[in-house]
Design goal:
Oligomer: single chain
Mean pLDDT: 84
Pfam families: Rrf2
Strand order of the largest sheet: 1-2
CATH class of the domain at 5-85 and 126-145: Mainly Alpha
Helix content: 40-55%
Keywords: DNA-binding
CATH superfamily of the domain at 5-85 and 126-145: Winged helix-like DNA-binding domain superfamily/Winged helix DNA-binding domain
Organism: Chelativorans intermedius
InterPro entries: TR_Rrf2-type_CS, Tscrpt_reg_Rrf2, WH-like_DNA-bd_sf, WH_DNA-bd_sf
Low-confidence stretches: 151-160
Distance between the termini: 36 Å
Protein name: RrF2 family transcriptional regulator
Length: 160
Protein backbone atom coordinates (compact mmCIF):
# COMPACT_ATOMS: atom_id res chain seq x y z
CA UNK A 1 0.00 0.00 0.00
CA UNK A 2 1.35 3.37 -0.91
CA UNK A 3 0.14 6.52 0.82
CA UNK A 4 -0.65 9.50 -1.41
CA UNK A 5 1.34 12.72 -1.11
CA UNK A 6 -1.85 14.39 0.10
CA UNK A 7 -1.99 12.11 3.14
CA UNK A 8 1.75 12.40 3.75
CA UNK A 9 1.53 16.20 3.63
CA UNK A 10 -1.54 16.22 5.89
CA UNK A 11 0.28 14.20 8.54
CA UNK A 12 3.40 16.36 8.32
CA UNK A 13 1.32 19.53 8.55
CA UNK A 14 -0.45 18.18 11.64
CA UNK A 15 2.87 17.27 13.27
CA UNK A 16 4.12 20.81 12.78
CA UNK A 17 0.90 22.30 14.15
CA UNK A 18 1.02 19.99 17.17
CA UNK A 19 4.54 21.21 17.92
CA UNK A 20 3.31 24.82 17.91
CA UNK A 21 1.03 24.31 20.95
CA UNK A 22 -1.90 26.23 19.47
CA UNK A 23 0.07 29.10 17.97
CA UNK A 24 -1.07 29.73 14.39
CA UNK A 25 1.29 28.97 11.53
CA UNK A 26 0.83 30.05 7.93
CA UNK A 27 0.65 27.53 5.13
CA UNK A 28 3.61 29.36 3.63
CA UNK A 29 5.65 28.64 6.78
CA UNK A 30 4.75 24.95 6.60
CA UNK A 31 5.71 24.90 2.91
CA UNK A 32 9.05 26.55 3.60
CA UNK A 33 9.91 24.32 6.54
CA UNK A 34 9.23 21.11 4.64
CA UNK A 35 10.26 22.38 1.20
CA UNK A 36 6.82 21.53 -0.23
CA UNK A 37 4.45 23.20 -2.65
CA UNK A 38 2.38 25.95 -1.00
CA UNK A 39 -0.47 25.34 -3.46
CA UNK A 40 -0.62 21.65 -2.62
CA UNK A 41 -0.51 22.42 1.11
CA UNK A 42 -3.39 24.88 0.71
CA UNK A 43 -5.53 22.01 -0.58
CA UNK A 44 -4.39 19.84 2.33
CA UNK A 45 -5.26 22.58 4.83
CA UNK A 46 -8.69 23.04 3.25
CA UNK A 47 -9.44 19.34 3.60
CA UNK A 48 -8.19 19.26 7.21
CA UNK A 49 -10.39 22.26 7.99
CA UNK A 50 -13.42 20.56 6.46
CA UNK A 51 -12.64 17.52 8.62
CA UNK A 52 -12.67 19.76 11.71
CA UNK A 53 -9.05 18.95 12.53
CA UNK A 54 -7.66 22.45 12.05
CA UNK A 55 -9.01 25.96 12.32
CA UNK A 56 -8.06 28.84 10.07
CA UNK A 57 -7.81 32.47 11.03
CA UNK A 58 -7.53 35.31 8.54
CA UNK A 59 -5.60 38.47 9.01
CA UNK A 60 -2.19 39.67 10.05
CA UNK A 61 -1.76 37.28 12.95
CA UNK A 62 -3.79 34.51 11.34
CA UNK A 63 -2.88 31.11 10.08
CA UNK A 64 -3.78 27.52 10.80
CA UNK A 65 -3.82 25.70 14.12
CA UNK A 66 -5.15 22.45 15.54
CA UNK A 67 -8.88 22.56 16.28
CA UNK A 68 -8.52 20.11 19.17
CA UNK A 69 -5.92 18.52 21.37
CA UNK A 70 -3.36 16.36 19.58
CA UNK A 71 -4.35 13.38 21.75
CA UNK A 72 -7.88 13.59 20.30
CA UNK A 73 -6.72 13.39 16.68
CA UNK A 74 -6.59 9.77 15.54
CA UNK A 75 -4.09 9.04 12.78
CA UNK A 76 -6.26 6.29 11.29
CA UNK A 77 -9.13 8.73 10.77
CA UNK A 78 -6.79 11.18 9.05
CA UNK A 79 -5.45 8.48 6.72
CA UNK A 80 -8.95 7.24 5.85
CA UNK A 81 -10.24 10.74 5.15
CA UNK A 82 -7.17 11.80 3.17
CA UNK A 83 -6.79 8.80 0.90
CA UNK A 84 -8.87 8.82 -2.26
CA UNK A 85 -8.76 5.16 -3.09
CA UNK A 86 -8.23 1.96 -1.16
CA UNK A 87 -8.84 -0.21 -4.23
CA UNK A 88 -5.67 -2.25 -3.89
CA UNK A 89 -6.89 -4.79 -6.42
CA UNK A 90 -9.33 -4.50 -9.30
CA UNK A 91 -12.25 -6.13 -7.49
CA UNK A 92 -12.09 -3.41 -4.79
CA UNK A 93 -12.98 -0.73 -7.33
CA UNK A 94 -16.41 0.83 -6.95
CA UNK A 95 -17.50 -0.58 -10.30
CA UNK A 96 -16.34 -4.04 -9.19
CA UNK A 97 -13.71 -4.30 -11.86
CA UNK A 98 -13.74 -6.92 -14.57
CA UNK A 99 -11.69 -9.75 -13.09
CA UNK A 100 -12.84 -13.14 -14.30
CA UNK A 101 -11.97 -14.74 -10.94
CA UNK A 102 -14.12 -12.43 -8.79
CA UNK A 103 -16.99 -14.90 -8.20
CA UNK A 104 -14.66 -17.54 -6.68
CA UNK A 105 -11.49 -15.64 -5.78
CA UNK A 106 -10.17 -15.85 -2.23
CA UNK A 107 -7.50 -13.20 -2.84
CA UNK A 108 -10.08 -10.48 -2.20
CA UNK A 109 -10.46 -11.63 1.42
CA UNK A 110 -6.70 -11.78 1.93
CA UNK A 111 -6.23 -8.29 0.53
CA UNK A 112 -9.13 -6.97 2.65
CA UNK A 113 -7.51 -8.49 5.75
CA UNK A 114 -4.15 -6.90 4.87
CA UNK A 115 -5.78 -3.49 4.30
CA UNK A 116 -7.67 -3.73 7.60
CA UNK A 117 -4.42 -4.59 9.42
CA UNK A 118 -2.65 -1.65 7.73
CA UNK A 119 -5.35 0.78 8.86
CA UNK A 120 -5.57 -0.79 12.33
CA UNK A 121 -1.95 0.20 12.98
CA UNK A 122 -2.78 3.85 12.22
CA UNK A 123 -5.89 3.56 14.38
CA UNK A 124 -3.68 2.75 17.35
CA UNK A 125 -1.97 6.16 17.31
CA UNK A 126 -2.94 9.75 17.96
CA UNK A 127 -1.17 12.88 16.82
CA UNK A 128 0.17 13.23 20.37
CA UNK A 129 1.93 9.88 19.97
CA UNK A 130 3.75 11.19 16.91
CA UNK A 131 5.24 14.14 18.78
CA UNK A 132 6.47 12.40 21.92
CA UNK A 133 9.99 13.38 20.82
CA UNK A 134 8.88 17.02 20.69
CA UNK A 135 12.29 18.57 21.42
CA UNK A 136 14.00 16.63 18.66
CA UNK A 137 11.24 17.39 16.14
CA UNK A 138 11.24 21.04 17.22
CA UNK A 139 14.92 21.31 16.40
CA UNK A 140 14.45 19.76 12.99
CA UNK A 141 11.52 22.03 12.18
CA UNK A 142 13.08 25.01 13.94
CA UNK A 143 10.03 25.46 16.14
CA UNK A 144 12.07 25.75 19.32
CA UNK A 145 15.60 26.93 20.02
CA UNK A 146 18.23 24.29 20.70
CA UNK A 147 19.07 23.58 24.31
CA UNK A 148 22.50 24.94 25.32
CA UNK A 149 24.07 21.47 25.28
CA UNK A 150 22.57 20.64 21.90
CA UNK A 151 23.63 23.83 20.10
CA UNK A 152 27.28 22.80 19.93
CA UNK A 153 26.40 19.25 18.93
CA UNK A 154 24.23 20.49 16.04
CA UNK A 155 26.83 23.07 14.97
CA UNK A 156 29.52 20.37 14.84
CA UNK A 157 27.30 18.08 12.80
CA UNK A 158 26.72 20.87 10.28
CA UNK A 159 23.03 21.25 11.12
CA UNK A 160 23.16 24.24 13.42
Amino acid sequence: MRMTLHTDYALRMLIMLALKDGKPVTVQQVAEQYGLSRNHLLKVALKLRRMGVIVTTRGRSGGIALARDAAAINIGSIVRASEDDFALVECFRQDGGACLLSPACRLRGVVRQALDAYLAVFDGYSLADLIQNKAELGLLLQTEPPAPGNALQHAESGRG
